[in-house]
Amino acid sequence: MNSLPERIMEYAEAKPEATPVRADDLLHIGDRAAVVRALSRLVRSERLMRICRGVYMRPIQTRFGLRAPRLEKALASLSALWGEIIVPNGGGAANWLGLTTQNTVRSVYLTSGADRLLHFGAHRVELRHAPAWQLTAPHRTAGVVIRALAWLGPDEVEESLDAVIPQLTGEDLSDLAAARDVVPAWMAEPLNRRLVHG
């Protein structure tokens, strides 16, 4: 019979890339204390990555060696696991929309959950708790616009909206209109003027 670490690896390898592995998922193959020890051994031997406390993922074998799971997949899995919204921060959103050329040095994402630091090998990702209005329309362009404006701040909202609104679809504009009730007044008022008169 295979050892406990081998059985854990069989379990992890049968799952899609970026599937979180936790001690609770493994109690059918060993008691908690033994499972926790085996997970620690697998991290030391680099067969599993410890993403954060109690959550592990399997690194992916490529012809160039091992790599961390793809970040987008990993964050989507963690979002589902924790029942939280996780989205790129406003700096990344502003860059994506062409409102800034500044690249963020650190990987920072906003979340409806607690602040956390995630480790994907040498790459660290910071999850920062954000107010609900900044997490509006989480996986839609309107949400990207709101997070970019939040990051740029009140002084740049008018100019930024003038640059972004012509690029948006009717659906994006409807999403933005729906968000006007939840964003701060400094964002809602210029948004309202453009959506009503646009």
What's the overall geometry? Answer: elongated
State the domain count: 2
> What is the average of the pLDDT values?
93
Largest sheet: 4 strands, mixed
User: What percent of the residues sit in helical stretches (DSSP H or I)?
Assistant: 40-55%
Number of strands: 8
The helix-and-strand class reads: alpha+beta
Strand arrangement in the largest pleated sheet = 5-6-8-7
Distance between the termini: 69 Å
Helix-strand layout with pairing:
Elements: H1 4-13, H2 32-44, E1 49-52, E2 55-57, E3 60-62, E4 65-67, H3 71-82, E5 86-88, H4 90-96, E6 107-111, E7 116-120, E8 123-129, H5 141-152, H6 157-164, H7 170-179, H8 185-197
Parallel strand pairs: 6-8
Antiparallel strand pairs: 1-2, 3-4, 5-6, 7-8
Q: Can you walk through the features of this model?
A:
This protein is an alpha+beta fold and 198 residues long. It folds into two domains: 4-67, Orthogonal Bundle (Arc Repressor Mutant, subunit A); 84-197, no CATH class. The protein has eight helices and eight strands. It has helices spanning 4-13, 32-44, 71-82, 90-96, 141-152, 157-164, 170-179, 185-197; strands at residues 49-52, 55-57, 60-62, 65-67, 86-88, 107-111, 116-120, 123-129. The radius of gyration is 21 Å and the shape is elongated. 32% of the residues are buried. The mean pLDDT is 93.
List keywords for this structure.
alpha+beta, two-stranded antiparallel sheet, Arc Repressor Mutant, subunit A, 2 domains, 198 residues, 43% helix
